């Protein structure tokens, strides 16, 4: 298995090397190193999605089975997008190569490959742009920073488009506001025109298209997972919860990433939602159709993302709910916040969300009609609607990882902290330049959380892990909180690798531990079935 | 498509060695795949594999780890209903390695 070949942490750390290669970047050919790239997409997925050029192919091999006119397809696709997306045209034109972004990318920091400097990653495509779309590039070629689109260039574009998590940290530092993520997004779109996706992305996209979620959980499976949590909740709290599924006429539709109903530690967060909503007597429903908040289509192309995205709203319409409550997902929020209105227009068939418990109207969600569960819970706490016993989390020394999409993508910075500090007595921030809008990526976003690229993931996860190590050493931090499903999966792996002993937890897992519920039995264990502080077995 | 030689047949597998067509699975094939990891399957291994296959038949996906842990605990006794026990049996991880021997596809997404 690929994972087994990943070097040990100290060994990997010793290979981080920022020395520039001997030759200029255009003369340094791409090298596909095992452990740093994903498997190629299998044809069955692309066929199902009606995406072009499905085929068996291996990124590490020379022959990519490209169509004869691949260059024309790529350049036509580029021309179309230069016309369609003003941002893309602008980002191709305006970089002055000041270098402010150069050392801001987690992959560069953890690896040292100069082509992971955001400026150079974008330059890989810019050089092609200059050659075919600018007069200076056409006339002066290499002197003007232009280069021919060759198979080697295409391979290089692919390799580095799938070494960017579109986290946008670099864009925070760019004096021009160039968003390199958008360059990567377009690069991936162009590669998809040639059938060059990864299997870890194409699989979930096709599952989501067919079954409503990335994992391909069928309705009875989705329901049975939740029922499993309910039995655990009853064991822990003595309270029997009976949520509803696909219920027409519910006030609220709740949508969360399917990872939360399948993989630890997200499952503990899912238990938290169930307990909180039960305690509030919330009139809400789960859906086995809109059973995914995430959208790997976004890591494929704009059209694919748009196609998968609308099911959440179609389901809200079908069930006749008033508004939508969204769980701890990352990129779902970026899409809701930044893309929904352009794709589908405001969701005017829904009402402006209003908390039935506090009467707070969420004016910020006036257009999308979708409220983030961290905002929802922060509002409950602020209005004194929850009885909390933070002492139950006293074994936890918490630090907070801002998820790229919710922090940089929509400005959710304070709400999760407010909730976290209300349910945990011990809270410590990581250094300022690694949190909030400066947050470091988990290293595995945008569908890079596969197994075969573990070395890349661990390199990309290094800067975040390093900041966690700092607060562990200084304050004894033992838990890393967050509000994103990829974070929960990816950080668990990167913490085990770089800072063993650090636990990764979703916000509503921490809420669930502290939530004092009406009629509950004496709590002795946390959501993970481990003894609460002070309730450990006596010797 | 990569393939694996088995009993004179070419079995299609993915890049990580998981079989593609679930109908290709047989007990002998499971023994063969485990053998490639130098693991010989004991009754304890089979308990896990059989549970995975039954669960898959009903739900079309491998079970969550915590369901596996709980069910193995029920079947084999509480001292075995824990992650540590499963990792002893399947050092490559119960989700990945045991699913591979059981002939199930690996789950994908935010996991």
Outline the structure in words.
- The complex is a heterodimer of chains A (539) and B (111).
- Chain A contains 23 helices and seven strands.
- Chain A has helices at residues 9-14, 43-48, 70-84, 86-93, 106-111, 118-133, 135-140, 151-161, 169-173, 180-192, 199-211, 219-237, 266-280, 302-309, 311-319, 331-338, 340-344, 373-382, 404-407, 414-423, 454-475, 485-498, 507-514; strands at 252-255, 284-285, 323-326, 370-372, 398-400, 479-482, 503-506.
- A four-stranded parallel sheet of chain A has the order 2-1-3-4. A three-stranded parallel sheet of chain A has the order 5-6-7, with helices on both faces.
- The longest helix of chain A has 22 residues, at 454-475.
- Chain A is globular.
- The model of chain A has no long low-confidence stretch (mean pLDDT 96).
- With 111 residues, chain B is mainly alpha-helical.
- The radius of gyration of chain B is 14 Å and the shape is globular.
- Chain B starts with a strand and ends in a 9-residue tail after the last helix.
- In chain B, 31% of the residues are buried.
- The model of chain B has no long low-confidence stretch (mean pLDDT 90).
- Chain A binds chain B through residues 1-4, 39, 42, 56, 58, 199-200, 203-204, 207, 213-218, 220-221, 224-225, 228, 232, 257-259, 262-264, 266-267, 294, 296, 449-452, 485-486, 488-489, and chain B through 1, 14-16, 59-61, 64-67, 92, 96-97, 106-111.
What secondary-structure arrangement, pairings included, does this model have?
The complex is a heterodimer of chains A (539) and B (111).
Chain A: H1 9-14, H2 43-48, H3 70-84, H4 86-93, H5 106-111, H6 118-133, H7 135-140, H8 151-161, H9 169-173, H10 180-192, H11 199-211, H12 219-237, E1 252-255, H13 266-280, E2 284-285, H14 302-309, H15 311-319, E3 323-326, H16 331-338, H17 340-344, E4 370-372, H18 373-382, E5 398-400, H19 404-407, H20 414-423, H21 454-475, E6 479-482, H22 485-498, E7 503-506, H23 507-514
Chain B: E1 3-6, E2 9-12, H1 27-36, H2 43-59, H3 65-76, H4 83-89, H5 94-102
Antiparallel strand pairs in B: 1-2
């Amino acid at each position: 298995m690929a994972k087994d070949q990943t070097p040990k942490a100290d060994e990997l750390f010793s290979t981080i090397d920022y020395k520039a290669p001997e030759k200029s970047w255009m003369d340094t050919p791409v090298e596909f190193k095992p452990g740093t790239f994903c498997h190629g997409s299998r044809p069955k997925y692309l066929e199902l999605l009606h995406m072009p050029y499905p085929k068996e192919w291996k990124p590490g091999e020379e022959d990519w089975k490209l169509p004869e006119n691949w260059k024309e397809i790529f350049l036509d696709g580029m021309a179309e997008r230069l016309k369609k997306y003003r941002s893309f045209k602008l980002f191709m034109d305006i970089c002055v190569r000041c270098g402010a972004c150069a050392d801001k990318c987690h992959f560069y920091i953890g690896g040292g490959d100069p082509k992971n400097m955001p400026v150079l990653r974008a330059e890989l495509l810019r050089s092609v742009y200059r050659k075919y779309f600018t007069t200076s590039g056409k006339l002066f070629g290499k002197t003007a920073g232009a280069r021919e689109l060759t198979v080697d260039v295409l391979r290089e574009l692919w390799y580095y488009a799938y070494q960017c998590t579109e986290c946008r940290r670099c864009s925070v530092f760019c004096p021009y506001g160039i968003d390199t993520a958008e360059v990567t997004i377009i690069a991936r779109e162009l590669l998809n025109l040639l059938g060059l996706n990864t299997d870890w992305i194409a699989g979930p996209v096709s599952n989501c298209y067919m079954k409503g979620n990335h994992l391909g959980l069928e309705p009875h499976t989705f329901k049975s997972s939740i029922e499993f949590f309910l039995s655990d909740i009853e064991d822990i709290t003595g309270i029997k919860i009976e949520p509803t599924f696909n219920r027409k006429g519910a006030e609220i539709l709740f949508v969360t990433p399917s990872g939360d109903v399948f993989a630890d530690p997200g499952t503990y967060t899912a238990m938290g939602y169930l307990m909180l909503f039960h305690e509030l007597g919330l009139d809400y429903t789960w859906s086995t159709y809109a059973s995914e908040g995430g959208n790997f289509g976004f890591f494929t192309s704009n059209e694919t993302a748009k196609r998968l995205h609308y099911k959440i709203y179609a389901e809200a319409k079908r069930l006749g709910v008033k508004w939508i409550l969204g769980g701890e997902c990352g990129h779902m929020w970026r899409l809701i916040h930044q893309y929904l209105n352009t794709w589908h227009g405001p969701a005017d068939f829904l009402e402006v969300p209003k908390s039935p418990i506090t009467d707070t109207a969420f004016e910020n969600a006036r257009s999308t009609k979708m409220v983030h569960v961290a905002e929802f819970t922060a509002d409950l706490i602020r209005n004194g609607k929850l009885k909390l016993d933070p002492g139950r989390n006293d074994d936890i020394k918490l630090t907070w990882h801002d998820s790229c999409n919710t922090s940089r993508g929509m400005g959710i910075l304070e709400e999760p902290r407010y909730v976290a500090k209300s349910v945990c007595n011990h809270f410590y921030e990581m250094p300022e330049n690694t949190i909030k809008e400066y947050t470091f990526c988990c290293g595995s976003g945008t569908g890079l959380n596969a197994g075969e690229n573990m070395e890349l993931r661990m390199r990309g996860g290094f800067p975040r892990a390093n900041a966690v190590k700092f607060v562990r050493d200084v304050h004894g931090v033992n838990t890393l909180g967050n509000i994103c499903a990829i974070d929960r999966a990816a950080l668990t792996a990167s913490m085990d690798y770089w800072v063993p002993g650090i636990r990764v937890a979703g916000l509503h897992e921490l809420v669930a531990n502290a939530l004092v519920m009406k009629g509950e039995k004496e709590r002795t264990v946390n959501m993970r079935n481990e003894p609460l502080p002070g309730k450990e077995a006596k010797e | 498509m990569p393939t694996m030689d088995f009993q004179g047949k070419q079995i299609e597998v993915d890049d990580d060695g998981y079989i593609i067509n679930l109908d290709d699975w047989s007990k002998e094939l499971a023994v063969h795949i485990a053998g490639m990891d130098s693991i010989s399957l004991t009754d304890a291994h089979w308990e896990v594999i059989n549970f995975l296959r039954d669960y898959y038949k009903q739900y079309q996906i491998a079970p969550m780890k915590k369901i596996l842990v709980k069910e193995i605990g029920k079947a084999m006794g509480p001292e075995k209903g824990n992650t540590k026990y499963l990792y002893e049996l399947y050092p490559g991880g119960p989700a990945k390695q045991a699913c591979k021997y059981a002939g199930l596809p690996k789950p994908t997404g935010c996991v």
